[in-house]
Write a structure and sequence with these properties.
24 helices; mainly alpha; 1% strand; 530 residues
Length: 530
């Protein structure tokens, strides 16, 4: 039996939840969340334009740079996204986002004081933990501020912050590092290099933005769907339960509650994952990458294997639904290419095309932000239009993001003409960004309102543990092994055939999963009033 607060269906949800008109405050709140997400990706992505300076200053390899950008951030972003997603389902989402914004901004600023690979890795982990609060809270809030028929559009607008922030980070980072280094060629303030100053300068504004976020009003949970969910009486109980379930070695406690069989399954999973991590370490020579990834995958395995006992309806609608899993993994393949292409674009322009950091930042960042914004907004709009005509219309847009971006990614990492490079980088961003709103909205439609934070955290598992933790690192590892950043970039195209298979499965299963949502939830023990 589910222990969460019981949702109540409303006889006339359109009248009660006001689905015919979106209040002006919803648009204001969405605009604030977009600014938060912009800063989220400024802080996350600025390391791209700083990569060549960091690499030279700290003596790092491409695979280590890929680790800092993707794995160190992504694994802990994914792990803490699970308990924080649960907290977003039960606690005050505005307060959670405010705290997270302050934390990741502080760790971004602290990145500027890093003096070696280890301290910079720790700072990146802190950024990942803080940013894990943002999207579970935001997706849940947006789903309550906007009706289902506009959900992909609203989520796409929010997600546009990803590309705007990514673009701004290159513009700001390139300008800061060049101006700082030229202004202080010797004895810089506090002994800081240009890349260190850039981290500090972009990190501090988030502490002020957190004050504005704190003033937003918390909406009624489930109001847009007419399934009003009362506040949880014990909001932190589920958070700590999920935290223990996902953080090793406490995962053994959760496994033990299922008896000897639960412990045996957990240990078996740890052995298999550990063996794979060992083999990959021997092949690549990069222990930190595969230790981190191994911890991440073991933690997710532990969490998922105990979720059925702790919350069977949530397990059934998320991990027990092929439609949900194939949708998020298909988007994970889009993220695999997009994250890596956006990260390695600046190093490729600086190293291979011999462009100055400020020039590369301007011509990648500005057009990239515009392309990403146009792609994600038009993709969200198209996804909602196609969804009205066909049950799997949104998945077609995910396919566009996967296949449409591939030829431009290929050209990015083979051209030696800066103009061609900048044009195709813009087009790659345009097509690659179009899929996010469609995939996110589909995942939200496949769960109940009280599960949206957890579903969002699970959705971001695919974008982080598949896309972010593996894509940028893989390109860097192949580059280190072959001595060619071009070959590293081209290796990302392996995501296309894998993604197409996953989209085919989603196309066959999503309509039935949506149609039987409430019935499957009730069968799993969810109490839903008729």
């Amino acid at each position: 039996m589910n222990q969460n607060a019981r949702p109540e269906t409303v006889e006339n949800p359109r009248e009660t939840a006001g689905l015919d008109k979106v209040p002006a405050y919803s648009w204001y709140a969405l605009s604030v969340l977009v600014v938060v997400y912009v800063l989220n990706f400024v802080d996350r992505n600025i390391i791209s334009i700083l990569a060549e300076d960091i690499k030279a200053d700290l003596g790092l390899r491409d695979d280590q740079i890929g680790f800092l950008y993707g794995t160190a951030f992504g694994v802990f972003y994914a792990l803490f996204g699970i308990p924080l997603g649960k907290l977003a389902d039960s606690w005050h989402r505005i307060r959670l986002m405010t705290a997270g914004l302050a934390i990741w901004s502080a760790f971004t600023a602290l990145s500027g004081f890093a003096r070696n690979f280890t301290t910079l890795s720790v700072a990146r982990i802190g950024v990942g933990v803080g940013e894990a609060t943002a999207s579970p809270s935001a997706y849940s809030l947006i789903s309550d501020w906007f009706p289902k028929k506009m959900r992909a559009t609203a989520l796409a607008i929010y997600s546009s912050g990803l590309y705007i922030g990514g673009g701004i980070s290159l513009l700001i980072g390139g300008a800061i590092v060049e101006n700082w280094n030229s202004s202080f060629p010797d004895n810089p303030p506090l002994g800081l290099a240009g890349w260190q100053a850039a981290f500090i300068i972009v990190g501090l504004p988030g502490l002020l933005l957190a004050l504005l976020v704190f003033t937003l009003k918390e909406p009624v949970r489930g109001q847009s769907d007419g399934i009003i969910t009362p506040p949880s009486q014990e909001p932190f109980r589920g958070f700590f339960r999920e935290l223990i379930a996902v953080i090793p070695p406490f995962t053994l406690i959760g496994a033990a509650r299922a008896g000897v069989g639960g412990i045996a399954l957990n240990i078996a999973g740890a052995v298999v994952i550990g063996a794979l991590a060992y083999v990959l370490t021997r092949i690549t020579g990069n222990a930190q990458q595969w230790i981190a990834v191994g911890i991440g995958y073991y933690a997710i395995f532990s969490w998922a294997s105990t979720l059925k006992r702790r919350d069977e309806p949530a397990f059934t609608l998320i991990w027990g639904t092929p439609a949900f899993l194939s949708t998020i993994l298909a988007y994970g393949m889009v993220a695999f290419m997009s994250y890596a292409a956006s990260f390695w674009a600046a190093p490729y322009a600086i190293r291979i095309l011999e462009e100055a950091p400020s020039t590369a930042g301007f011509w990648i960042g500005g057009p990239g932000a515009l392309g990403g914004f146009l792609g994600i907004i038009s993709g969200g709009w198209l996804a909602d239009r196609l969804r009205q005509k066909h049950a799997t219309g949104r998945l077609l847009v995910v396919g566009i993001g996967l296949v449409g971006a591939a030829p431009f990614l290929y050209t990015m990492f083979t051209t030696t003409d800066p103009l061609v490079f900048y044009v195709v980088a813009f087009l790659q961003s345009l097509f690659g960004s179009s899929a996010l709103g469609a995939a996110a909205a589909t995942s939200q439609d496949l769960v109940l309102p009280r599960m949206r934070g957890t579903a969002t955290a699970t959705f971001f598992l695919s974008t982080t543990l598949v896309g972010l933790a593996l894509g940028p690192y893989m390109a860097g590892q192949v580059s280190s092994m072959t001595g060619s950043l071009s070959t590293g970039g081209l290796s990302l195209l392996i995501a296309v055939p894998i993604g197409l298979v996953l989209l085919f499965i989603a196309h066959r299963t999503v309509p039935e999963a949506e149609r039987t949502l409430l019935d499957r939830a009730r069968a799993a023990g969810e109490e839903i009033a008729s």
